[in-house]
Amino acid sequence: MIENVEKAKHHMPEQTGRGEKRATVSGKINRRLIEILFPALSVLIFVTCYIAALAVTNLSYQVTEGQTKNAVDTVDEFFNGKKSAVGILSYNKELCQLLEEAPTAEQIAGAPGKEAAVTLLKRAYDTMVSDGVQAVWLAGIGNDTYLMQTGEAWAANLADIDWDERVRETMGPVVTDPFSDPVTGKMVISIVAPVLSLDGSNITGYVGFDVFQDHFSQLLQDIRIGEGGTLELVTGDESLVYSFDASLINKKVEEVENLGREYLEGIRNQYTGSMTYSYEGKKYYSIFAKSEATGWATVGSIPVEEINAPRNQLIAVMVVISLLILITVIIIVIRLVRKLLSPLSDIAVNVEGFSKGDFSVNLEIDSDDEIGLLADSVKGTIQSLREMISHATEVLAELSDGNLRLTVDGVYDGEFGKIKDALEEIVRSLNDTLGRIYESADQVSEGAAQLSFGAQSLSQGAAEQAGAIENLAAVIQEVSNQVDHNAGNAKTASDKSKELGSEILEQNRQMQKLKEAMDDIRMNSGEIGEIIRVIEDIAFQTNLLALNAAVEAARAGDAGRGFAVVAEEIRSLAGKSAEASKNTAELIEKSVRSVKHGAGIVDTAAQALEVVAQESVKMTDTVDRISKASEEQSRSITEITRNITQIASVVQTNSATAEESAAASEELSSQAQLLKDYVSRFQLDR
């Protein structure tokens, strides 16, 4: 196969007529496939990268949202348990009774229910200490004192707290904003519930759990928003309860430098959802949520560039992988196309050789697809053409050898049947044309023989006419002599009248014979004219046949070249025959006119002799007029002598023309025989 491809490279033209390299089928298909695959795969890569990037971005958004929700859940879980516990504790009657027993700070120390209340607070502390509770306390509105789980009492200063109003509004447990513990001085978060009077008519105090803000912050430190993200808890008064940046804790949001305005507006509007803001020159994507347990805003933020980083990495990786896949697909497609179309090179080599007359086809292509079908078709076509050309060559060789007794028996399928029909028509036409030429040549030969015989007869008759004319001239001369002597012998005319009458009668008989001879000459001249017309017709037919033969020979090409020469020679001979016949006809026509004229003169002479014969009886009585009559006769005889001389000249011309016609007829006969010899070279199917 490689050798065939190399042969294709050597045999196939490297350039077109305009100097450009000829494109191969595989190259065209590869180029078309690349033109289709590259944009399609590029669009697919772009769409895939876009979808993947969108998915990664959405995933980052979802992770941020999930981590923010996790922080909210952690906060709610941390405070909801404590709110429940403090709520239950607020309904304890011992605490209510203590607050009623000690309406002032001084009464707490000696109140009967203090010990029971402290025990209750201590028990609650022991239960909640593991959950991050740092202190459990009871504060009375009337005594304005904190009673700790340790039994210690501290001034509460409830008038300065900011969560009292919230507790009164909810009449249930609330989580306070971070504040400074008056006892420890640390920032604490309290879970506070109202303690009602025994009759439940009013709030007598508060019970609460204190959680250090630092402990709460440690709880949230394990929650990460990406690698460089932040988590903030913001109170209702826009203070930061928690932030990854510890320096920002307990600061007002508006005090944070380089923080986007969008962030502050989201906090103030209690926005929940996602937004993008800037902080210290970086873009952050944030999720705003609200803690149901505390009412704080929970903001999880992640740098936009961190969100885009995996997307960009994914896009880069996918682009590289897609390019590798695209290049691999293109290489595979090119190799597959070349492998599938490589048999076409073999076909092209054989077809090119076939176009140059090389029928040695060698197509060994084992393929059951369209290419295999094409190879089989090309091989079958070349084989069929080889057989048809071989058979046509044999037929034409037989024709060139003169064998027209043959039939075209080869197999000519489809449109090639016209070749078979054309060969059969050539054989039939040559048989018919040469047969007609042979018959025409035979007829020309027979006509020429008849014409030669007629010309010889005419020549012989002309010779006889010449002898008769000579005799007539001698007689006329004798008559002239007699007439000349008539004047001198007038005296003896009477004695000689009978003898003269007899002589005149004899001359009259001779004149009748001359008249009959002239009539024969006229009749023979008419027959010669008919023969000449026959010769002209034969020459015309021969010329037509020669012209048809030349046309058929031209159609036959090289094989009919020799026959064309023969046909041209026949045509030339026919032209010469026609020309000779025309000249002969003109001479004969002149001879006929002369003969007619001579016949008129002879008639006149015969009539004159008749008159002489009649008058000879009266000669004796008209001797005196003989002299005048003799003179008149002398003049008439002189004219007759002149006319007889002309007749003799015409007869001699007729004799010469007849001899020429005989010679031309013999030449025509020999040429017709030569034409028959040429035609006899062909073996006709007759």
UniProtKB/TrEMBL annotation:
Q: Where is this region: Disordered?
A: 1-23
Q: Which GO terms describe its cellular component?
A: plasma membrane
Q: Where is the Methyl-accepting transducer domain?
A: 440-669
**Where does it live in the cell?**
Cell membrane
Give the originating organism: Hungatella hathewayi DSM 13479
Lipid bilayer topology: Multi-pass membrane protein
Q: What is this protein called?
A: Methyl-accepting chemotaxis protein signaling domain protein
Q: Show the stretches that span the lipid bilayer.
A: 36-56, 314-337
Give the record's family classification: Belongs to the methyl-accepting chemotaxis (MCP) protein family.
Q: Where in this chain does the record put each HAMP domain?
A: 338-390, 393-435
Which Pfam family, any one of them, does this sequence belong to? Answer: HAMP
Leader sequence segment: none
- Origin: domain of life: Bacteria
Q: Which GO terms describe its biological process?
A: chemotaxis; signal transduction
Q: Which UniProt keywords apply?
A: Cell membrane, Chemotaxis, Coiled coil, Membrane, Transducer, Transmembrane, Transmembrane helix
Q: One GO molecular-function annotation for this sequence?
A: transmembrane signaling receptor activity
Under the heading InterPro entries, the entry gives: dCache_1, HAMP_dom, MCP_chemotaxis, MCPsignal_dom
Name residues in a coiled coil. 497-524
Classify the main location. membrane
